[in-house]
Design a protein that fits this description.
Pathway: Nucleotide-sugar biosynthesis; UDP-alpha-D-xylose biosynthesis; UDP-alpha-D-xylose from UDP-alpha-D-glucuronate: step 1/1. The protein has nine helices and 13 strands. By secondary structure, it is α/β, with parallel strands linked by helices. The protein has a domain of 236 residues: 3-Layer(aba) Sandwich (Rossmann fold). Helix 7 crosses helix 9. The radius of gyration is 20 Å and the shape is globular. It starts with 29 loop residues before the first strand and ends in a 6-residue tail after the last helix. The structure holds nicotinamide-adenine-dinucleotide (NAD) and uridine-5'-diphosphate-xylopyranose. Nicotinamide-adenine-dinucleotide (NAD) binds next to helix 1, helix 3 and strand 5.
Length: 349
């Protein structure tokens, strides 16, 4: 019985971890693999994991959207290793835990090469599950609120099956299904490996997360608005502006991921901040906080943009004792500082 209350029948016991784990005389470190660790969330997760002196962290990343800069403080550290690797290729490393994050997350990047996005989610996740099976590691997969598509249930509990458009319409360039359906198949693979091979799995469904180190030209709404406000460019609201999102600050999210990995629940578990804002409200807040002179302009939207999104985090509260702490205004100010430093735009006194 998985402790999220659902039955997940395993046909096999979990694979045996490395004999090092049972060593009587040598207390080995916990070896943790973070795929996509050079990205936004991954690099913050690495910072958190490296705080524990018992952890050794291996990052693999192909640098499609991530950067070594995000990990510069750890390069050369004896407990840290960075490998350029694409998760669509098999990987042989000896580890105890796998945080599997590798995947472009911003719509402009995941739509750029949709077939590669699907391969990353499907073949990449298969490779990481194969690795977990061989070495007996516990594996956590970062799924997404996009598995709920354009949701017809609000807020979204984990039990909701979602409303995803699976059709890659030839005439509409770059729809979202490569990402949404890729993540849905990856979730299925996680649970099939759990049932069929006994792998210890954890599945997080992450809702829109923001914070320092997001790519400045990442294309997601919070980074766009902050960069635009600082550069004095119009804030681009994609129509209609009444669509909602719930924004979680990255330190809260990372805390939730670590709790999920360390706890007993397979998930899927929603991790997100239930505070819900329209895109227009977000633009107004950024304008007020960062640059009251900036104009707001309305631009065309992309197909299939979800109209509303808000996590039901009852499960995360009950099973992980987790809920977000950082309010949107405070998080935006922390992100402003980081963007100012990277764009070399100081605050007027
Ligand atoms: N940030 C969010 O709001 C959010 C919401 C839901 C889910 N997620 C998930 O969390 C994870 C991290 O997202 P993020 O916001 O940090 O995005 P990000 O783009 O900053 O990080 C993704 C990282 O994965 C790497 N990567 C991509 N494809 C790869 C491949 N084939 N092989 C190896 N590395 C690869 C990128 O170079 C990058 O470093 C993703 O799986 C994403 O789907 C994020
Ligand atoms: O400049 C912009 C960018 C975006 N938007 C709007 O802001 C909303 C949020 O867009 P984002 O691109 O930030 O993110 P989305 O919510 O569409 O997708 C995200 O969802 C969860 C994760 O899996 C991913 O990080 C990402 O796919 C959308 O309604 C979009 O139309 C703007 O109004 N202006």
């Amino acid at each position: 019985m998985a402790s999220n209350g659902e039955l997940h029948t395993r046909t096999k016991p979990p694979p045996t971890p490395s004999p090092l784990r049972f060593s009587k005389f040598f207390q080995s470190n916990m070896r943790i693999l973070v795929t996509g660790g050079a990205g936004f969330i991954g690099s913050h997760l690495v910072d958190k994991l490296m705080e524990n002196k018992k952890n050794e962290v291996i990052v693999v990343d192909n640098y499609f959207t991530g950067s070594k800069d995000n990990l510069s403080r750890w390069i050369g550290h004896p407990r840290f290793e960075l490998i350029r690797h694409d998760v669509t290729e098999p990987l042989l490393v000896e580890v105890d835990q796998i945080y599997h994050l590798a995947c472009p997350a911003s719509p402009i990047f995941y739509k750029y090469n949709p077939v590669k996005t699907i391969k990353t989610n499907v073949i990449g996740t298969l490779n990481m599950l194969g690795l977990a099976k061989r070495v007996g590691a516990r594996i956590l997969f970062t799924s997404t609120s996009e598995v709920y598509g354009d949701p017809l249930v609000h807020p979204q509990p984990e039990s909701y099956w979602g409303n995803v458009n699976p059709i890659e319409d030839f005439f509409i360039a770059g729809v979202r299904s490569c990402y949404d359906e890729g993540k849905r198949v990856a979730e299925t693979l996680m649970f099939d490996y759990h049932r069929q091979h006994g792998i210890e799995i954890r599945v997080a469904r992450i809702f829109n997360t923001y914070g320092p180190r997001m790519n400045i030209d990442d294309g997601r709404v919070v980074s766009n608005f902050i960069a635009q406000a600082l550069r004095g460019e119009p804030l681009t609201i994609q129509k209609p502006g009444s669509q909602t999102r719930s924004f979680c600050y990255v330190s809260d999210l990372v805390d939730g991921l670590v709790r999920l990995m360390e706890g007993d629940n397979t998930g899927p578990i929603n991790l997100g901040n239930p505070g819900e804002f329209t895109v227009l409200e977000l633009a107004d807040t950024v304008k007020e906080l960062i640059n009251p002179q900036v104009v707001i302009k309305t631009v065309e939207n992309t197909p299939d943009d979800p109209r509303q999104r808000k996590p039901d985090i009852t499960k995360a509260k009950e099973l992980l004792g987790w809920e977000p702490k950082v309010k949107l205004r405070d998080g935006l100010s922390l992100m402003e500082e980081d963007f100012r430093a990277r764009l070399c735009i100081s605050k007027k006194k």
